[in-house]
């Protein structure tokens, strides 16, 4: 049997290797290894920071929060220091927005009214988030009679318009109207939306392989819910909570405008100022316009942020863009 010829004896079998500098395709084939692990939240943050709407809403919200926490940085005038001698006077030095019917500085009242609106909004979303998350998580994950009882309880509260319910509650508790009471009146009837969304998301997630593997390894159902199911289901709730903050601020202003919100003599509120200025809409529209603009800008900032967060946490929306 003849021995095979080597490459030296047969030049056609020689293997030619081009120099590295002559193969630019190597740069294309290079793989970049990143140290950080990609997650839903990291991808969402990478997407949000590329969108101008996120930065616009972030600036608005940051400004609102700073004004709410430190109103004296923006005005030194006492909003409750009113004099009928300045009633409905036009803007002057140190008073850029003029005076209202009671002779109060409008600019100072708008600045100090920010704290009330933000406090009510934050209190409402904390209450809504906590109650809605607990109810939705228990109903969606454990199912059975737990789901039946909690879902029917949510249907009862969901069937009642929360503004109407808040009007009734604030009318009954008229002697104890404060930020906590008005937040409780709004939040107690607005949590079913959060609970429904979280329940539906948990029903989708709880049959995943990693959830069944966690239970198979001996982890209790409650720990599985807290460690695995809830973190992977909470994204839609974050979006709803962000949007609910703007709705809570509007609800507080609405109740104050209707006269069943915060007492005008004790709390500074944009709703109270709008309600007081409605009788002068024809003669002094600016008295109503200024607090309305502050309310609109604040609500718009949170709505814009909610829209950006919603799109960032939705992979399908990112793919469409």
TrEMBL record:
- Name any one Pfam family assigned in the record: BPD_transp_1
Q: Which CDD domains match?
A: TM_PBP2
Q: Does the keyword Transmembrane apply?
A: yes
Which domain of life does the UniProt lineage start with? Bacteria
List, for all copies, the residue spans of the domain called ABC transmembrane type-1.
Answer: 114-306
Alphabetized UniProt keyword annotations:
Cell membrane, Membrane, Transmembrane, Transmembrane helix, Transport
Transmembrane segments in this chain: where?
A: 54-74, 120-144, 156-173, 179-198, 229-251, 288-309
Membrane topology category: Multi-pass membrane protein
Task: Report the subcellular localization.
Answer: Cell membrane
Give the matching SUPFAM superfamilies. MetI-like
Family, according to the entry, reads as follows: Belongs to the binding-protein-dependent transport system permease family.
Name under which the protein is recorded: ABC transporter permease
């Amino acid at each position: 049997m003849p021995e095979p010829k080597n490459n030296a004896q047969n030049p056609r079998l020689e293997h030619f290797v081009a120099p590295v500098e002559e193969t630019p395709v190597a740069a294309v084939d290079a793989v970049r290894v990143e140290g950080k692990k990609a997650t839903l939240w990291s991808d969402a943050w990478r997407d949000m920071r590329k969108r101008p709407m996120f930065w616009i809403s972030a600036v608005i919200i940051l400004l609102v929060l700073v004004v709410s926490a430190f109103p004296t940085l923006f005005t030194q005038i006492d909003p409750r220091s009113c004099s009928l001698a300045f009633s409905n006077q036009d803007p002057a030095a140190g008073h850029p927005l003029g005076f209202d019917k009671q002779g109060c500085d409008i600019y100072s009242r708008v600045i100090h009214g920010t704290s009330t609106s933000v406090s009510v909004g934050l209190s409402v979303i904390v209450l809504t988030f906590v109650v809605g998350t607990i109810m939705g998580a228990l109903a969606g994950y454990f199912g059975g009679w737990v789901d039946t009882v909690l879902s029917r309880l949510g249907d009862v509260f969901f069937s009642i318009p929360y503004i109407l319910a808040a009007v009734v509650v604030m009318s009954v508790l008229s002697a104890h109207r404060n930020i906590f009471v008005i937040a409780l009146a709004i939040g107690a009837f607005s949590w079913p939306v959060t609970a429904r969304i979280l329940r539906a998301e948990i029903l989708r997630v709880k049959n995943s392989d990693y959830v069944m593997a966690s239970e198979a390894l001996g982890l209790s159902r409650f720990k599985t819910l807290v460690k695995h199911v809830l973190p992977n289901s909470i994204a839609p709730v974050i979006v709803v909570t962000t949007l609910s903050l703007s709705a809570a601020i509007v609800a507080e202003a609405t109740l104050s405008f209707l006269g069943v919100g915060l007492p005008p003599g004790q709390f500074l509120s944009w709703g109270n100022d709008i309600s007081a200025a409605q009788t002068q809409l024809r003669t002094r529209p600016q008295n109503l316009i200024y607090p309305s603009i502050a309310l609109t800008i604040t609500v718009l900032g949170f709505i814009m942020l909610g829209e950006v967060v919603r799109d960032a946490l939705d992979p399908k929306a990112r793919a469409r863009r």
